[in-house]
Design a protein that fits this description.
With about 350 residues, the protein is α+β, with helices and mostly antiparallel strands. It folds into two domains: about 1-55 and about 250-345, no CATH class; about 65-245, no CATH class. The protein contains one helix and 18 strands. The strands form four sheets. Strands 1-7-6-10-4-5-9-8 form an eight-stranded mixed sheet, with no helix packed on it.
């Protein structure tokens, strides 16, 4: 009987040790899985947003050329208002016209910053002929453009933003008349300054001018399907209404700061500014993106972590210990990246 009891006690110790080993391995596995997910999402979001910031303000030609925006009432929509600034930021308490604050899926999260980037896309076409009186372009190749597509055209003297009104993907002729599509063109004249009359300010683009998609983009943190996520707002070809898409999960916060060249000496001022402190968005030369990511799963750490955010190299949290105590046991990662606007460094 004594031997049996001793064997049972030893067996219990072995079972307890095995159970402890299993629980420890399971916690480590869950922690590594959560950490890997956060790191993977951090790499993805960093690549997406950096790529779009670099293209902010791109027209296809030199940044100094005037832009004639012939769309109807372009200042009425955030995504056509190129004159107000190709790069515009919104503080966490400032309404962003692309998406309202709220608790529904897709709504923006209060306290998180938002960013608008306007400019030409990456797909370009060479102009073979432009007949201004007929409001008609001929380009050098077949294309993906559609009726209603909004494009930018430029040469060494100026650029124009306009909407295509009659397009056939089987040929290379593109028409930009008035009176159709939304928002529509206020004139068929593409010259600067814009006159919203039938013929407007005449301007004819010569051969070897360039046409690009007009690509308005916005970023914000919103409510996703399973938690907070980074959303990207973009305009699909042929559409006149930008749509928000859940881009990357596990993004809890985004704080943005802007590098200004206030004296036009070609160097960014040492102090990066909040959106509320920027008085001229045309002086922005770079954007510092601070992102906070957190795992979806809770109870992955032994203690509630201390989170340093924004990241310590942003100039916003250089004090030792700056940050906050998490209210849960998730895995957190703070990311900071400074991205130059290539089109404004020419």
């Amino acid at each position: 009987m004594v031997e049996l009891l001793v064997a049972m006690v030893l067996g219990l110790f072995l079972m307890a040790g095995t159970l402890q080993l299993f629980l420890g391995s399971n916690r480590l596995y869950r922690f590594q899985e959560g950490l890997s997910s956060v790191q993977e999402n951090a790499r993805a979001v960093s690549e997406f947003i950096a790529r779009d910031i670099r293209m902010g303000g791109f027209t296809g030609c030199h940044r100094s050329v005037p832009v004639a925006n012939v769309l109807n009432d372009p200042s009425a929509r955030w995504w056509t208002d190129f004159a107000s600034g190709a790069v515009i930021g919104y503080e966490g308490n400032e309404a962003f016209p692309g998406q309202a604050f709220g608790s529904d899926i897709g709504d923006r999260v209060a306290g998180t910053d938002a960013l608008v980037l306007l400019g030409a896309g990456r797909q370009g076409y060479t102009i073979v002929q432009h007949v201004a009186t007929a409001a008609q372009f001929k380009i050098n190749q077949l294309h993906h453009l559609q009726d209603g597509s909004i494009v930018m055209v430029c040469d060494a003297r100026q650029a124009s933003i306009l909407q295509l009104t009659n397009v056939n993907t089987s040929n290379v002729t593109l028409v930009h008349n008035t009176g159709t599509e939304t928002p529509g063109n206020c004139t068929k004249g593409l010259g600067s300054p814009v006159e919203c009359t039938a013929n407007g300010t005449p301007y004819e683009y010569g051969p070897d001018s360039i046409m690009f998609d007009f690509t308005p983009i916005a970023y914000y943190v919103g409510n996703g399907e399973t938690g907070l996520s980074l959303f990207r707002v973009s305009l699909e070809p042929g559409s006149s209404t930008p749509q928000a898409f859940e881009l990357v999960e596990e993004v809890e916060d985004m704080q943005l700061h802007y590098g200004i060249d206030s004296d036009a000496d070609g160097w960014v001022d040492p102090d990066y500014l909040d959106a509320s402190a920027v008085t001229d968005w045309g002086m922005v030369r770079s954007v510092r993106v601070n992102l906070l990511l957190a795992s979806r799963q809770d109870h992955l750490t032994e203690d509630q972590p201390w989170v340093v955010f924004p990241a310590a190299d942003t100039g916003e949290a250089n004090k030792a210990g700056a940050g906050f105590q998490a209210a849960d046991w998730r895995v957190y990662q703070s990311l900071s990246k400074t991205v130059a606007l290539r089109n404004r460094l020419q």
